[in-house]
Amino acid sequence: MYYLVYGLLYLLSLLPMWLLYGLSDGIAFLLYAVIRYRRGVVLSNLNIAFPEKTDTERLWIARRFYRNFTDNFIETIKLLSAGEKFLQKRLVLDNPELLDNYYDQGRKVQVHLGHCFNWEIGNLAMAMRTRYTFLVAYMPVENKVFERLFKHLRSRTGSVLLPATRMNKAIIPYRHQLYMLILVADQAPSGAENSYWLNFFNRPTAFIKGPERGARIADIPAVFARFYKSSRGHYRVQLITIAEHPRELPEGELTRRYRVLLEDAIRKQPDSWLWSHKRWKFAWKEELASSWIDTDSPRGL
């Protein structure tokens, strides 16, 4: 089954981008207007994040999101056959010297990012351009065929995939290497209790503790990667240091800084974030007060 799925997707990836984007437009229309795939979740999230916008403005963001969402899917398929030149054209790193400076200092780096399109292109392109051992934390897929497919795709240019479900053990073989660890840190945590709670778009929101915890234990510089779209199919990445020495910060401060950078990035290009996931699936309760790390009191109650 794996070879059948891989073969079909590989053949699809050989089509020119103009044709693939035409296919993306059609799929986006079907998902938004006909199938209405998670449309309720998308609009609910946009209502939470942008209460100041009109219904028309939020619908415009939603329609643009669905096209970006299907573009992300189509571009990921293209990566099965894309070469180095394709990747170099599709992603530009604004300030690579930031990573070069840390590498020359002999320091490992944690890169924190969000689900901003297109992180799959970013994974392959960044792995080619760094001297670091390129480690990527990922969530395993239950379907064995697609798990194998994604592992093949994401490791094509040298990325080492570490399952987020057992990160502590998976990273041990690389602990003495000069590595860059990529963490998508905006995903909803598995439980509300073992989380940091902050205001995110003025709504109490649970954030996973793992990225900050790892940076503090090893005192690894934490860097935020802001992905943004410059034109259709072309992306740029701006790197911003969150903390040079996370261990010196009060607990929760690194996550607070990440929250600010992430929200700012989303506000600048609101249609490029993954609005279809249930980011606010956990409700704030007073018994979670010990996990509240924001300077403002809980909002959105």
Would you spell out the secondary-structure blueprint of this structure?
Elements: H1 2-13, H2 17-34, H3 39-49, H4 55-78, H5 84-90, E1 91-93, H6 97-104, E2 109-113, H7 119-129, E3 133-138, H8 144-154, E4 160-163, H9 167-170, E5 179-184, E6 196-200, E7 203-207, H10 210-218, E8 222-231, E9 234-243, H11 253-268
Parallel strand pairs: 1-9, 2-5, 2-8, 3-4, 3-5
Antiparallel strand pairs: 6-7, 8-9
Oligomer: single chain
Spatial extent as radius of gyration:
19 Å
Please count the helical segments. 11
- The backbone outline, from C-alpha atoms, is globular
In whole angstroms, the N-to-C terminal distance is 48 Å
Class by alpha and beta content:
alpha/beta
Element string (H = helix, E = strand): HHHHHEHEHEHEHEEEHEEH
Measured as a percent range, the helix fraction is 40-55%
Spans of at least 5 consecutive residues with low confidence: none
Short description:
The protein is α/β, with parallel strands linked by helices. It has helices at 2-13, 17-34, 39-49, 55-78, 84-90, 97-104, 119-129, 144-154, 167-170, 210-218, 253-268, and strands at 91-93, 109-113, 133-138, 160-163, 179-184, 196-200, 203-207, 222-231, 234-243. The chain has a domain at 91-291.
Walk me through what this model shows.
- There is one protein chain.
- With 301 residues, the chain is an alpha/beta fold.
- It has a domain at 91-291.
- The chain is 44% helix and 18% strand.
- It is built from 11 helices and 9 strands.
- It has helices at 2-13, 17-34, 39-49, 55-78, 84-90, 97-104, 119-129, 144-154, 167-170, 210-218, 253-268, and strands at residues 91-93, 109-113, 133-138, 160-163, 179-184, 196-200, 203-207, 222-231, 234-243.
- It has a 7-stranded mixed β-sheet, sandwiched between helices. Strands 6-7 form a two-stranded antiparallel ribbon.
- Helix 8 links the parallel strand 3 and strand 4.
- The termini are far apart.
- The relative contact order is 0.15.
- The model has no long low-confidence stretch (mean pLDDT 93).
